[in-house]
Amino acid sequence: MSRAEDYQESAGFADRDRAHTLGDPGDMSFSSWLQSLFKPLVPVGPPETIRVFTTADPTITGDGIAIEEDGWIIDAQQSRTVRLFEVPTPGAEQCLITYRAKMKSHALTGRAFLEMWCRFGWRGEFFSKGFQQSVQGTTRWANYEIPFYLKKGQRPDLIKLNLVVEGGGKIWIKEIELLKTPLG
């Protein structure tokens, strides 16, 4: 036996012991096992509604926002964050949280996008921002959504739903909902 083979065997890396030593089920190779540790979780079921917001629900921000038909209109004179709603103890863990809404704009000089903050008690707040899905200029109604992935053991105690406006103009938003999709 060579020195390298002797070391591999004493370290538990001999082919015959590979699965047992690494805690591998079956004939999985070391690289496959290692890759499985970093495999992203994927949705394994249909989305479930956590909350749907209607014009009967008061928004947190009161200035510069008004109810119009079945949604809200924001008349932004300058850049601002419009705090829309908060969801305390959403009962979500190991899932994909989705903040979804319909938006349109008129004469928006910058852009507007959805923003979601998840608070995890003493660990702080973390966000998801819809930079890639923003409204600009004058647009028609379109669907927008942003994700937030929660791993096992990650349970936010509060979710904040905002609309960020960079520049001035009018933005309409409606059909706001918060969803969760199990991950596996």
Characterization of the model:
The chain has 184 residues and is mainly beta. It has helices spanning 3-10, 18-22, 30-37, and strands at 48-53, 65-68, 71-76, 80-88, 95-106, 108-119, 125-129, 135-137, 142-150, 158-166, 169-182. It starts with a helix and ends with a strand.
Question: Would you spell out the secondary-structure blueprint of this structure?
Answer:
Blueprint: H1 3-10, H2 18-22, H3 30-37, E1 48-53, E2 65-68, E3 71-76, E4 80-88, E5 95-106, E6 108-119, E7 125-129, E8 135-137, E9 142-150, E10 158-166, E11 169-182
Antiparallel strand pairs: 1-11, 2-3, 3-11, 4-10, 5-9, 5-11, 6-7, 6-8, 6-10
Distance between the termini: 44 Å
Number of helices: 3
Q: Total number of β-strand segments?
A: 11
Mean pLDDT level: 86
The CATH superfamily of the largest domain is known as: Galactose-binding domain-like
Secondary-structure content class: mainly beta
Instruction: Please identify, by name, the CATH architecture of the largest domain.
Output: Sandwich
Uncertain segments are 1-25
Order of helical and strand elements: HHHEEEEEEEEEEE
How would a textbook summarize the main sheet? 6 strands, antiparallel
Helix content: 10-25%
Domains, number: 2
Bulk shape? elongated
CATH class descriptor name of the largest domain: Mainly Beta
Strand content: over 45%
Q: Write down the CATH topology of the largest domain.
A: Jelly Rolls
Q: Rg from C-alpha positions? A: 24 Å
